[in-house]
């Protein structure tokens, strides 16, 4: 039997939620996060920090370039679904810039929107292509990279969010929501899933019919961001970069 190889074309059945390839991709992501945590002290050296930041930023940017190039080569590029306006596409680009610039202001947003959005996407992917299709590999590399970037800035660079970061993230998401509404009306797309629910099973299925699930999503976002902030409540070291203590 021939082993599967990396593919640009779809073959076989579509992606199955919690299938063996999905579970293995989640396991690999977890192992990468665990390795980052275990080797966080070894990454404290300035040269190691710089190399890791640039390498991970390169992976994130190349994943987006590869995604756009795949659409062009497969003659499937459309403004309705290929613009980088989904939440994880936006946080991917912000994460790459954050890594390159060590921007705390971007960290405030990507920590909550990036981890919250990418974690939900990894668990319930809006994905139709099975392994080893390019889109399967790209999806998990990109979303795992977002979480790695946010946790790197936390565990290695020592950045810490504040409660104001939660409020800033909610403000940012609501501005992005308005942009998505306008772009969806122009392109017929469904960026941020504000025009209709995703076709694959997801958390949105439990949040009511359109358009009321959009309001429910606001509440879910606040709940998820609050849970992400909980480990930092009253535990932020005075020396950690925060909104009041930005690195020079």
TrEMBL record:
UniProt entry tagged with the keyword Phosphoprotein: no
Keyword terms: Membrane, Transmembrane, Transmembrane helix
Stored Pfam families: TMEM164
TM region(s), chain numbering: 20-39, 51-73, 79-99, 106-124, 136-159, 171-192, 212-230
Cross-referenced InterPro entries: CHP02206_TP0381 (IPR011737)
NCBIfam families: intg_mem_TP0381 (TIGR02206)
Name listed for the protein in its UniProt record: TIGR02206 family membrane protein
Source species of the chain: Brevibacillus gelatini
Source taxonomy: Bacteria, Bacillati, Bacillota, Bacilli, Bacillales
């Amino acid at each position: 039997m021939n082993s599967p190889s990396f593919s640009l074309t779809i073959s076989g059945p579509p992606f199955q939620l919690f299938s063996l390839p999905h579970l293995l991709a989640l396991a690999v992501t977890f192992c990468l996060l665990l390795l980052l945590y275990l080797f966080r002290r070894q990454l404290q050296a300035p040269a190691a920090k710089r190399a890791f930041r640039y390498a991970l930023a390169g992976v994130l940017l190349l994943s987006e370039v590869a995604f756009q190039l795949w659409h062009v080569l497969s003659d499937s590029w459309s403004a309705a679904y290929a613009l980088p306006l989904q939440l994880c596409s936006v946080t991917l680009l912000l994460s790459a810039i954050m890594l390159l610039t060590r921007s705390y202001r971007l960290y405030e947003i990507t920590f909550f929107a990036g981890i919250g959005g990418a974690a939900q996407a990894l668990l319930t992917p809006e994905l139709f292509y099975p392994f080893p299709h390019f889109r399967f590999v790209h999806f998990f590399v990109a979303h795992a990279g977002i979480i790695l970037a946010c946790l790197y800035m936390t565990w290695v660079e020592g950045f810490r969010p504040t409660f104001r970061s939660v409020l800033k993230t909610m403000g940012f998401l609501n501005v992005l929501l308005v942009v998505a509404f306008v772009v969806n009306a122009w392109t017929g797309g469904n960026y941020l899933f504000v025009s209709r629910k995703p076709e694959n099973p997801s958390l949105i299925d439990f949040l009511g019919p359109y358009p009321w699930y959009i309001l429910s999503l606001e509440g879910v976002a606040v709940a998820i961001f609050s849970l992400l902030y909980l480990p930092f409540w009253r535990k932020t070291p005075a020396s950690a970069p925060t909104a009041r203590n930005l690195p020079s």
